[in-house]
Amino acid sequence: MEVTSDKFRAAAARSLADTQLQRALARIPERFVAARARAAAEFGEFEQLRAAGAAIRERALARLDVLLERFEAEAVCRGASVHWAVDAAEANRIVLDIARGHGVRRIVKSKSMVTEECALNDALEAAGLAVLETDLGEYILQLARERPSHIIAPVIHKNREEVTELFSARHRRPRSTDIAALCQEAREILRPQFFAADMGISGANFLVAETGSVALFTNEGNGRLVTTLPRVHVAIAGIEKVVETLGELAALARLLPRSATGQAISNYFTLLTGVRGATESDGPEAFHIVLLDNGRSRLLGSELRPILRCIRCGACLNHCPVYQTVGGHAYGWVYPGPMGAVWTPALVGLERARELPEAATFCGQCQVACPVMIPLPDLLRRLRTRTTAEHLRPARERLALNLWGYAARHPRLYALLAAFAARVLYRLGRRRGWVRWLPLAAGWTATRDFPAGEGRTAREVLRRERGG
Amino acid sequence: MSMREAILTRVRAATAGKQVPPAPEVIPRAAGTLTEDPLVRFRRLAEMSGSTLDEAASPATAPGRVAAYLKDAGLTCAAVVWPALAALPWTAAGIAAEARAPQTTDAIGITGAFCGIAETGTLLLLSGGDSPGATSLVPETHIALLPRERIMRDLEAAFARVRAEHGSLPRALAFISGPSRTADIEQTIVIGAHGPKRVHIILVG
Amino acid sequence: MRVGLFITCLADLLRPSLARAARTLLALTGAEVVVPRRQTCCGQPALNAGDPATTRALALKLAREFADCDAVVLPSGSCAGTLRIHYPGLFAERPEAERRDIEALAARTHELAEFLDTRLPEVPGRHAGRVTYHDSCSGLRELGVKQAPRALLARVPGLELVEMMNAEDCCGFGGTFALKYGAISAAICDRKCAAIRASGAGTVTGGDLGCLMHLAGRLQRTGDTTTRVLHWAEIVAGTSGAQAWK
Questions:
Q1: C63, C89, C117: which is the final residue of a domain?
Q2: Would you call C221 an interface residue with chain A, using a CB distance cutoff of 8 Å?
Q3: Which residue range(s) make up the domain with B129?
C-alpha cells in the first residue's frame, strides 16, 4: 500500500476543512471514549487487568522464538499448515500459492489490518482472483476504493448518505438512508457469497502457543462465516500476536473488547484449532496460517520493542486529541493515531513517516488508555530523537533548536536575550497586550494571539522587588 | 536459509539473554464474577447482551418451550437442529425439525451448548460431527438449549471443563454473546449483521 | 527549609506575575525561598524535539544551581514532570555521580500545588465569581496533580469552583506542537474553549503556563475578550498587578 505519511500536514489541513469528517469524528468521545470508561468502571479492577495484560504480552515477547515454534508444532499436529513470511510480498505470494494449490477462484475476507499492511487484496486481484471484503465497513470501503481510517471502525469517516450512494450504484435496489436497512441490504447481498466462496481469509487477534489455535474477536458474524463455510481458511498474523496459554488468552479477552468498543465481550470470540474432522459437516478442510515478520523481528531488538505488545484495540486512536481532529487518513498508511505514529515509521522507515511522531501533543491519554500499557509518548519521543540523529529534521528547525540550546546553557546570554525579547514583545503588543503576528512564531500567530508579557522578565522583576 | 529460519534467527538474537518477566500473580475477573450466583449473573448478562431466556424442566420438555417461543415471536416452526439433539420429541411439540447441516434458506437453528459463562453471559458451543458450527450462525434465529448445571463462572473454568471432557480442543470453540451486530455506519448499533438476529437461550433442568 | 523556585522559561519571559505569586505563596509556608539567578530552562523543549543531549546538559546545570535547596518547586506540571519523571531516564547510562545528583534532584522536585497543598497556612487571594480548572496533561498524567490545585482554589474566599466537561482532555498545546501544527493545535483548542464557555465560569485557570497562553491566545483570536485566563497560583496568591489574560 502506498505510503503518504510524508504528506501528513497537507492531509491534516484537508481533514480540518472537511465538515462531514469533522461531524463523524465528533462521535468518538461518546461512542468510544465514554463507552470504554464505563466498561472499565463496571469491570472494577481494570488497572490490575491492564498490568496483567502488559505482563502477559511482555512475557510472550521475551520468549517469542520458543512460543512461535511451539505454536507451529501444535498447529501442524492438528493438521494446519504454518507458513513464514519475511515481508509483505512473501506473505502475498504464499497466499496466492495456497489459492492456486487449492484451485480457488472466489475468496471472502473478514476484517484484517495485517492484510491491509500487505495490500493483499491488490495482489490477489492482480492474479485474477475475486476477493470480497465481508465486514460491513470493509465492504463499503471496497466499493468506494478507499482504505480504512480506523483500525476497528474502518469506515468511521463516512456518513450514511455516502453509503447509500455506494450501495445504490452497485446493488441496483431501492435507495435507503436508514442505517438498519443498509445493513440488511449488505447482509442479503453478501450472504450467498459466503456459500459460494472457496477460500476464507482472516487475520488473527491472538495465536495460542500451547494449543496451536487462532483467536478471533468479531461482532458481525462474518468472521465465523469466513472461517466455517469455505473449504480453505487462511489466517494471517504478525509474529508478535502469540501468547502462551489459554489462561493468558482469557485475560486478554477481557481487555480487548472493553478497550476497543466498551463491550464486556465481543458477540463472537472464536478459537480455531486445526482442520475439519472426519465426521464434521462444516469447517475448512485446509487451514493455513501465515506468520508475517515484515520488520517485527527487527523491532524486537530495538528501543521500540514495547509497540509489539499492541493488541490493535484502537483505544489510543479514540483517546488521541490529534486523531480526533484529523481522522485516520491523514496518517497516510494502514495504522493511524498514536500506535500508527510508532508502527508506521517502524515498518516503512522513519524517513517516509517522520512527521507522524512530531504530530503529537504528548498529552499521555494514549498511554493511560492502552490496555497493555505501551509507553506511547516515550516511543514517539525516541523516534523524534532518531529523527534528529539521522539528520531528518529540517535545517531551519535544527538551527533554531541549536541556537536556543546554546543560549539556555549560557545564563548571561540567555538573560540578555530574554530581557530583549520581553521588551520587544511588550512594544509589539503595547496597545492590547497581545501580538497578532510574530515572524519567528508564525505557526503560532496564524491561529492564536501571542501574549505581550510585562516588558520585563520575571527574574528582573523579582530582583528589583528584592532590591527595593 | 529458509524464511522460517531467517525469522527465527532474528527473533532469537533479539530475545537472547532477555529476562523473562514473571507471570501476573492474579488475573482479575469482572466485578461480581467470583461472588455472584453464576446462574443469576448468567441470566442478567445474557439479557444485557441481547439474548432472551426461558427455562425447561427437562430435555424432553424443551421442544415445547421452543415451540412456544417460535409461536410468540411469529416465526416458522421449521427448524434445523443439531444431530446431537435429533432424538428430542420435536414432532410432538409441533416443530418440523431436520437434523442436518444448515442451508442458507433455514430460518431457525436449534443447538445445544457446551456450557454457559456467567462472567459475561456467554454461550460456548463446540464444533463436532453432531454439532455443526453453522447451525448457530446461518439461520436468522438461534435457539440454544443450555443445561442449567453447565454454567461456569468464567472463561478459565470453561477452558478447564473443555479440556477435562475433551482432552485437546475441538476444532472450533464459539463463544457467543447475543445476536450479531454492527456499528460500522455512523457508530449506530444495528442488531443482525451477518449472523443471527435473535439468540434465545433455554436453560434446561 | 530552603526552597528553590524554578520560575520556568515561559513565566520568565511572559508572566512575571506568576513568579511573584509563586514566591509569595512559598514564603507563606515559612520556608526560606531562593530564586537562583542563573536558571534558564529545564530543557523540556529539547527533550521533545529529539535533542536529549541538550536536556542532559541543562539538567546538570539545574542540579548545580539548586544543589543547596531542600526542595525545588516549579509552578508548572510539565516542567516539574521533566525534572522528576524524565531526567532520571536520561541519565540511566551516565556516570554514577551524575546519576546520583539527578536522582536526588528528581526526588526533591515538587509541582507548586503539590508542595503547597498541606503546607500553605493561609490564602491571601480573594476572588469574586466562578472559576473552572483545566487539568494540564503532564501535571495530571505524569505527576497525578488533580486535587491539590482544586483544594487550594476552594480556600479562596468568594471563589466558586465549577468543573467543565472533559477537564482532563488535552487543550492542544503540546509545546513545539503548537508551533509546528498550529491549525490542528487550534482546532483541538476550540473544543476546550467551548467546554470552558459551557461551564459558565468567567475565569479559566490551570497549572501550566504553556496551556494557558495557548487557551488565552485562541480565545483572544476568536473574539472572546471576556473569559479571563490566570494561573491558579496568581488567584490563590492574590498577586497585585496580576492582569488576567483576556
A1: C117
A2: yes
A3: 31-204
